[in-house]
Specification:
Blueprint: H1 2-9, H2 19-24, H3 37-48, H4 53-56, E1 69-71, E2 79-81, H5 84-89, E3 101-107, H6 119-123, E4 127-130, H7 140-143, E5 149-151, H8 155-161, H9 167-178, E6 184-186, H10 196-208, E7 214-216, H11 222-232, H12 242-250, E8 254-260, H13 285-288, H14 295-308, E9 312-314
Parallel strand pairs: 3-4, 3-8, 4-5, 5-6, 6-7, 8-9
Antiparallel strand pairs: 1-2
This protein binds cytidine-5'-triphosphate.
Length: 319
């Protein structure tokens, strides 16, 4: 499937058909992308029938109390207790309440970002969303640094911070959290069992060190609602990835949405190898068997939306 998508992506779209572009180049120039405001509004309205990003982005203090029992969304037989710390970190009002942005960037973690020089362009957006506490410091030229919202799957603590086995890793996580100053830290704490301790460690660190982040913990209904929306649109995903979740949420409060770092394929359009993540050595096989995601399928859907002008997907260099 991957190859077909790669080849398909270089085929000219409607905007390419002007003679202008054919005259001066021997291969089709990248399509001239134009935002489709009407379609964007239609998508926002349709998604609102399934979920409301303003509400579903986080459970609020008023709806839970310490000691409450929660069944995990994907492991319904397993439960967790709402701890004092978790309760303390629940927002009182939605961090997105009444928010509207002219343009938003959603930064996925594909290695396609390396050597993209997209940093400045990404940072110029009004609202920048990043995934899974991906590092920015050493990569600013390609990924930028502005961060208004960053997600953190509990598994990140294991994968990127060695489950905080010693003070060095603890310190590393602390540094990363401190660097977020004031942005929204979005932690899917109620999705799958197994992340309980990791979420608790992070909550504890935030409180103990007075870290300046606005924590958010997505609602119990969010994932099924997002999946429902895409299924209705014939995108048969098993479980939406963080990237697709962020796009779906962003339609609510962003007028124009720009995606970077979405490229779930081991080779780029010129057949050069592409790392799975821009910042680590995780391999591609990782997604195929073990993960419930269907990234190439999601990508295909996003590509279609790009061609229709509902979002802009950047998979090459900026400028
Ligand atoms: N992504 C992509 N191509 C890649 C890697 C990531 O399109 N080669 C996008 C996906 O939408 C992904 C997002 O970037 O959800 C963030 O990447 P990552 O942190 O790797 O997410 P996952 O490991 O897929 O974890 P999750 O279960 O949160 O989706």
């Amino acid at each position: 499937g991957a190859e077909m998508v790669i080849n398909g992506s270089s085929s000219p779209t409607v905007a390419d058909r002007s003679n202008e572009s054919i005259k001066h180049h021997d291969r089709p120039v990248p399509s001239k992308w134009r935002h489709n405001q009407t379609l964007s509004l239609k998508i926002r309205k349709h998604i609102l029938k399934f979920l409301d990003a303003e509400k579903d982005i986080s459970v609020l203090k008023g709806t839970l109390k310490p000691g409450d029992i929660i069944h995990y969304v994907f492991d319904r037989d397993s439960t967790m207790n709402v701890s004092q710390n978790l309760y303390a970190l629940l927002p009182r009002t939605s961090p997105l309440k009444g928010k509207h942005f002219r343009t938003c960037a959603i930064v996925g973690n594909s290695g396609i970002l390396l050597n993209s020089s997209c940093g400045q362009e990404i940072d110029a957006h009004s609202f920048v969303i990043r995934c899974n506490l991906a590092p920015v410091q050493e990569y600013t030229r390609d990924v930028g640094s502005k961060t208004d919202l960053v997600t953190m799957n509990p598994s990140v603590i294991q994968r990127a911070f060695e489950d905080l086995v010693n003070d060095t890793w603890r310190e590393k996580l602390l540094q990363r959290l401190h660097s977020l100053n004031g942005s929204i830290l979005w932690i899917p704490a109620f999705m799958a069992k197994g992340g309980k301790e990791r979420v608790e460690w992070v909550n504890e660190l935030i409180l103990k060190h007075h870290i300046n982040v606005r924590t958010a913990y997505p609602s119990l209904r969010l994932l099924h609602a997002v999946r429902g929306y895409w299924l209705t649109n014939k995108v048969y995903i098993k479980r939406p990835t963080t990237g697709l979740l962020m796009y779906t949420l962003a339609t609510r409060f962003c007028n124009r949405i720009y995606l970077y770092g979405f490229w779930p394929f081991p080779r780029d359009q010129d057949q050069n190898p592409v790392k799975y993540h821009y910042y680590d050595s995780l391999k591609y096989g990782y997604t195929s068997q073990t993960s419930p995601h269907t990234m190439p399928l999601e990508f295909k859907a996003l590509k279609t939306l790009h061609q229709q002008g509902a979002l802009k997907l950047t998979v090459g260099q900026c400028e």
